[in-house]
Every structure is written in C-alpha cells, then in structure tokens.
Amino acid sequence: MTVFDPAADFDRQLDGLIRLGYPALAGRSEAAFRDLLAPLRAAAVTGTAGLPAPTEARVPFLLVATRELVPVPDRLALTTLTGKRKPGFLDRNFPLDDLPKFDPIKELEAPAGPAYLLFDVDRGEEFRNLAPAAALEGMAAQERLPLTIDEGIAFITHFPAALASNRCFSLVGSRCGDKRVPALWISQGAPKLGWCWNGNPHTWLGSASARPERVGLE
Length: 218
What we know:
Helix content is about 25%, strand content about 25%. The chain is built from 7 helices and 12 strands. The N and C termini lie far apart (about 35 Å).
C-alpha cells in the first residue's frame, strides 16, 4: 500500500500552480511565489496526521490561492476535467461583476491573505439531491464547514478527478446575501462555475465540505 506523503503532495500542488502560470498572474517571479507559499509546507504535514490518502471524493488537504493572489476568472480558466483540455469557465448567468460580492461566510473564519491550507476536503456526495440549506445542516451535525469559491477552484485544480459526471458540488461557503449558492459542475466538457438556489436540490449536485480549521500565512 502506498503511504501518503503530505510534504511531497504539498510540493506537487505548489509545482502545479507554478506550471499553470500562477506566479506571472500574481505579478511575482517563480522564486518569490515559492518563498511566499513555502511557510505552509510544515502545516500541511502536521495538519494531515491521521487522515487517509486522497481519493477522487476526499483529499487530506488543499493549498488554496485566494482572489487576493490571482483573480477567480484567471484561476477558473486554468482548470480542466481529467483527460480533457477545455478550460473552465464562468456561467453566463453569473455576471463577472458579481464575483466580488461572494465572500466567505463568517462561520468559516477564512484566513486573510493570498493563500492558506484547508484540511480533510470532501466533495459531498452524501448531500446530493439535498438543497444547499439542508446540506449545511448536515455538515454542522458532522462538525464540518462548507467550501468557498476559492476552495472549490483549488480542489479541482489540484485534484481534477474530484469533478465528475453526477459528482458535482455546491460551494455553500461563499454567499453574497441573497439566495444564490455558487457551484461547480460540468458543461461542454469543461468545469463551469455557476450558481443554484439555496432551497433547490439536484440529483447530480452535492455540497463540498472540510474540517473547520484553516491555516493561513500569518
């Protein structure tokens, strides 16, 4: 059995962001980009103690880049489905100027800054065919919290197989004060970021969640 090595996976995730061109999008050199995120490596190791190895549905941790580092549309355009080349895109019903209005809900206490770590991340298949509002109650019962837009993009960036047919997920952790809930699903052979109503269930859409703690750079 292969033993999961969190330090090696942190390096893989960081190298992946560099290969995708994140440093240039962030206005930094590769060396400066590495130096910025390197302090999170040790926390990736300590924070995954006791967690199982990654599967398509659940992973030990994510290195999350925020919109402070690289804008959402740029990061979304660098995602693809497993084995595909078409870039991720924003749904036409999700106006570009709406994105800044979707902030992490206060319960998350999301770290400020350009990047952070998120642990024990699950795409939430158990919440398929449940409205996001009901899924949020289920997460609370498990002492877990929902993912944000930044975290969902990180999930499918580092683990593209997490987004699959009938295995898509809402991002209940990002809200703008109305009844819309962001979600990632598949359209035209590529990842799509759109939104659904808080009270509407979909058989193909779960709600992703993670352990409550998030570890930032500060």
